[in-house]
Design brief:
With about 400 residues, the chain is an all-alpha fold. It has one domain: Farnesyl Diphosphate Synthase (Orthogonal Bundle). It contains 14 helices and two strands, in the order ααααααββαααααααα. The protein has a two-stranded antiparallel sheet. The longest helix has about 35 residues. The two termini are about 15 Å apart.
Length: about 400
C-alpha cells in the first residue's frame, strides 16, 4: 500500500490494451530482457507502417514507457554493481528472485531467495486456482477484473509470512495455501479501492492501468467487493486438515485485521491525517493499522493453519504486527517518504526487527525463515538509506 499523504493526480495510465496477467507467472515487474523484447516488438510494429493512426500513437506511448522502464532497470543494475565494486555489504536480495545467495553472516547458511522463490511459486499457482475463471457468465467482467487485480504481480510477502509462520510451528506450506490465497485477495482488494479517485487517485500500478482505469470506476468498486467476498471462500476451501475451531478463529482474524480495527481503519486514518503525520508516533499509528494489521493476520493465520494453540497464535500475530510496521518504515525510506523522520524510522526498524527475533527465538531452527525475512527488511531499510535501491 501507498504510504501516508498521497493523492497524486499527475500519474497517467499506460496506453493500449491492458496485458493479460494470467498469461504469465506473477512477478514484481518485468526483467530487463522482457522489457527490451517488448520494446523491440513495438518498434517493429511501428516500422511496419500499417497501424491505424490511433493505434500507432498508443504503441508509441507504450514504447516510451518501456524505454523508461528499461532505463530504470539499468540504473538499478548499475547501483548494485557500484556496491559490489566498493566492497559494501548493503546489497539486498529480492524476494522471489530465482537465484539463491548465501547470507552475509558466517554463522548463517539459510538461503532466503531460494526459500521465497520456491514458496512463492506455490502461492502463485494456488491463487490462480482460487480465483474464479473469466469468460462466459461473467457479469460486468467482474471475474476478469478480479484476476487482473490479483495476478498483476507483487512480492506476495503476506502469503510468504503465512507460510513461514506455519512452518515455524510444525505446519507445511501446502496446508497454509488457503490462508495465503485469502489474505492476498484481501490485500489486492485494498489496493483496488486505495487506487480509486476518491482515495489515492492512482492511475497506474506495476506498469499497468489500475483496475478502475481498466474496468471503470464502478467496476473497480465492485471488483474490490468481489475479492473481499472471495477471500473468505478461499480461506475455507482445501482446509480440510485444519481443526474446525482454528478455521473459525481464522475467519475472525481475517475479518478483524482487514476491517475498521485494522487495515480499513488505517486507510481512514491515513486520509484524515493527509500530510500531517509529522511525528513518528502518528505515522506509526497509520502503519500499524494500514500495513501492520494484515501482517499480524499473516502471522496468526500461519499458526492457525498449523493447528497451533492460542498462545502461539497470539505470539506470531504480534510478530506479524511488528514486522509489518518495520516493513512500512523500510518502504518509506526506500521511497524517500517522510524524509524528516528517516533517522527515527531506521532506529525503529532495528528495534522492531530485534523484537521480532525475540519472539521467534523460542521456536528454534524452524523459525529461521522468519528471522531471515525480518533481517531482509532491516537490511533493505539501511541499504536504501545508503542510496542502494531494492524493490
Amino acid at each position: 500500500m501507498a504510504s501516508p499523504g498521497k493523492p497524486n493526480p499527475s500519474k497517467r495510465p499506460a496506453a493500449g490494451k491492458p496485458a493479460d496477467p494470467a498469461a504469465e507467472p506473477a512477478r514484481d515487474g518485468p526483467a530487463i530482457d522482457q522489457v527490451l523484447a517488448s520494446l523491440e516488438r513495438v518498434v517493429a510494429e511501428l516500422e511496419a507502417g500499417d497501424l491505424p493512426l490511433e493505434t500507432a500513437l498508443q504503441r508509441f506511448e507504450d514504447g516510451v514507457r518501456l524505454a523508461r522502464r528499461g532505463t530504470s532497470l539499468l540504473d538499478a543494475v548499475e547501483q548494485r554493481v557500484e556496491v559490489l565494486l566498493e566492497g559494501r555489504d548493503e546489497a539486498v536480495p529480492f524476494p522471489g528472485a530465482g537465484e539463491a545467495e548465501e547470507s552475509d553472516d558466517d554463522d548463517e547458511n539459510f538461503e532466503l531467495n531460494a526459500y521465497l522463490g520456491e514458496r512463492r511459486r506455490l502461492v502463485d499457482e494456488a491463487i490462480v486456482r482460487a480465483l474464479p475463471e473469466a469468460g462466459a457468465g461473467d457479469p460486468g467482467r467482474l471475474k476478469e477484473g478480479m484476476r487482473y487485480a490479483v495476478l498483476q504481480g507483487g512480492k506476495r510477502m503476506r502469503p510468504l509470512v503465512i507460510i513461514a509462520a506455519c512452518e515455524a510451528v510444525g505446519g507445511t506450506a501446502e496446508a497454509a495455501l488457503p490462508a495465503c490465497c485469502a489474505l492476498e485477495m484481501v490485500h489486492a482488494y485494498s489496493l483496488v479501492h486505495d487506487d480509486l479517485p476518491a482515495m489515492d487517485n492512482d492511475l497506474e500500478r506495476r506498469g499497468q492501468p489500475t483496475v478502475h482505469v481498466a474496468f471503470g470506476h464502478a467496476g473497480g468498486i465492485l471488483i474490490g467487493d468481489a475479492l473481499l467476498s472471495q477471500a473468505f471462500m478461499a480461506l475455507m476451501r482445501g482446509a480440510d486438515g485444519v481443526p474446525p475451531a482454528n478455521l473459525v478463529a481464522a475467519a475472525r482474524v481475517l475479518a478483524h485485521h482487514s476491517g475498521v480495527d485494522g487495515m480499513v481503519g488505517g486507510q481512514a486514518l491515513d486520509l484524515a491525517l493527509g500530510q500531517d503525520a509529522h511525528d513518528l508516533t502518528a505515522l506509526e499509528q497509520v502503519h500499524a493499522l494500514k500495513t501492520g494489521a494484515l501482517y499480524a493476520a499473516a502471522g496468526a493465520l500461519g499458526a492457525l493453519y498449523a493447528g497451533a494453540d492460542a498462545d502461539t497464535v497470539r505470539s506470531l500475530e504480534t510478530w506479524g504486527l511488528k514486522f509489518g510496521i518495520a516493513f512500512q518504515h523500510a518502504d518509506d525510506v526506500l521511497d524517500d517518504d517522510q524524509k524528516a523522520l528517516r533517522t527515527q524510522a531506521l532506529a525503529r526498524v532495528d528495534e522492531l526487527v530485534g523484537e521480532c527475533d525475540a519472539i521467534a527465538a523460542p521456536l528454534g531452527d524452524r523459525a529461521e525463515p522468519l528471522r531471515a525475512i525480518s533481517k531482509w527488511v532491516r537490511d533493505r531499510a539501511h541499504a536504501a538509506a545508503a542510496g542502494v535501491k531494492a524493490d
